[in-house]
Predict the 3D structure of the following.
Amino acid sequence: MIFFTTLAGAAQGLLIALVGADVAAALSLATLPDPLRYAGAATVLALGGIGLAAATFHLGHPLRAWRSAAMWRTSWLSREVIVLPLFLALTLAWAAAHAWTMPTVAVACGLAASAMAVLLYLCTGMIYGAVKAIREWATPLTPLNFALLGSASGLLLAAAFAAWLAPALTRAFAFSALVLTLIGAATRGGVAWRNHTLAPKTTLQSAIGVRHPHIVQSSQGAMGGSFNTREFFHGRSESYLRRMRWAAIVLGFAVPAVALATAPLAVASLAALAILQWLGMLAERWVFFAEVRHPQNLYYQRVG
Amino acid sequence: MSKQLALVIDLNVCVGCHACVTSCKQWNTSGAAGSLFDDQAYGADPTGTFFNRVMSFEVGEFPNTQTVHFPKSCLHCEDPPCVPVCPTGASYKREQDGIVLVDYDKCIGCKYCAWACPYGVRELDEKRQVMTKCTLCVDRITDQALPVAERKPACVLACPTSARLFGDVHDPESEVSVAIRERGGYALMPELGTQPANHYLPRRRTEAKSDPQQVVREANPLRVEGREPAAPGAPLSADWEH
């Protein structure tokens, strides 16, 4: 999930950036060379494809994945499963329409693909945001962060591609990436602060229904581990969590922001920066999962 | 109103013997749905799938402590958070009796339902890679071949102290509804709005209920005329001597 959300998030951001430039080109405000379109579309498809594969193979039954489109009326996961292939197909259609020199169709497909990209941010974010029991996630900031951080990495990628294939666009992409990185840092910081100060609504008292300030578990009922003792805890130390948090702050936000604001916008430096920022996003996503204090853990505290 | 089958668990009489755990495992590992995974059962790090677990909590501080044994299985919520999140429809709540079930053939093992459930009662069977949970022994309670008295979940039949009651909580006159109503039945984590169908009956303080009059010989209805101590303050002779 960490791989899927970061890779697909970057792919969505890259597509939005390219279609933005494409629309500007259609309005004769900029020029977008075809190689950039194709290289960009291929990258979007590759990243989306890798993300999709990572998401599919984390399932217990990957061959049944097709079933997951069924419950789109209630499940954000189901909605995501529908929107993701649509996004990839429309991206392909956008590039294909350009290849067949149908600019109007291309812009229409591109805008539709961008809309799917935005919708996909919403779906991915709401998969987590809709889980009421996990208050660390149940906030509108969750989908907002997926959108902001994904677009920031996508625009950084777009800037690297532009430095290679269309230097005139580099500055615009890099500036947008900088702005999104800064806004993303603010909202992600806001979530970190919210989680830090969040008083749990569910306590051991409400979990077992005994009103007493002093309750300790003496046994979880099994000497061995179980799905419940492994799935909901990251199994790492406090200091590992702290290191990951710093990795997210430094690689994901601080280094990209400073480099985009000061360093020369060369291909190599932007590409390296995009990779560093993605590593930072991996750390950020790991922390996103690790920050969860799942109420079920109240029942599994001591082997006894 | 539709039926809502549920368990009512009396924490006042649960002694934490785990008979419900083992009987649950026995019944549900032997059914048509396939066996429940056990790994390294006799090894250093055993693990396995259980639908029902008994936990123990110590309430209070020494010397005023009580040990509360707490059996936990799926609560068959009226508004189950695990059902709407399921992308395939494998997780569902039965219309006719409100049991929350998993269709193992449709489950893709994405674990989303386990993350949405605040109670930690869904366990991924790590061999079959499908989500499993308490079915209220649906294959047992609906089995017309069984005697009516045995059409109950295995845990209910196994409980030696009758701490587990089973019935329809939507029927106001059922044993479980009466127990909830008259003995202070409560739901777990009410703040989450899941409306669990299963309820728990709280611990009660047990005191000797004797009238002081009863311990005074004058008011003792068992007093036998002419039966007095041999000397003031001397012990009485035994009843059978009269």
